[in-house]
Design brief:
Number of domains: 1
Structural class: mainly alpha
Number of helices: 5
Number of strands: 0
Radius of gyration: 19 Å
Shape: globular
Helix content: over 70%
């Protein structure tokens, strides 16, 4: 198979990953506030049950749950967008742009998507768009890009040694 055909197939696969990620984010953002809160609260409960001592009182567990839920929600934002940054860069990396341009295009795509995601939430029952979420999402995108670049550099070094 020609390298241009292989590159086209890779591009298509990475595009599907990036679009699937975008649809997933859209679906999460499309949930009313109550549904979204219940989802994260259930995850937080499982985390608290796993890491808090069994003999901790119910009242103490509730306090821990309240304090932890906000952190879990923000970590979910960060992680979801780190995955997005990774997928977006995979896709853009299939084009013959310079490395700096690939980073800029990927970062801009991720940040713009974070902005549109928060705007979208303004129209969902009980939800609000928050600039702090855009900042957290943007840090996630930067992290996803960084992970990709680190993995890419490691692979290149391994190939050079062979």
């Amino acid at each position: 198979m020609k390298s241009s055909t292989i590159n086209y197939i890779k591009r298509l696969i990475y595009l599907v990953f990036a679009l699937t990620w975008m649809i997933t984010v859209f679906n999460f953002s499309n949930e009313p506030a109550d549904t979204s809160q219940n989802t994260s609260l259930n995850i937080t409960k499982k985390i608290v049950e796993t890491f808090v001592k069994k003999d901790t009182s119910t009242e103490q567990k509730e306090q821990i749950l309240e304090k932890t839920d906000h952190i879990v929600r923000k970590l979910a934002h960060f992680t979801l967008y780190a995955i997005g940054g990774f997928f977006i860069f995979n896709f853009i990396n299939t084009y013959n742009f310079g490395d700096i341009n690939k980073i800029i295009y990927s970062l801009c795509t991720g940040v713009i998507y974070a902005c549109t995601d928060e705007i979208h939430q303004l129209f969902i029952e009980g939800r609000s768009g928050q600039i702090t979420d855009v900042m957290i999402d943007s840090l996630g995108v930067i992290t996803g890009l960084s992970v990709f670049l680190c993995v890419k550099k490691i692979v290149e070094r391994c190939k050079a040694k062979i």
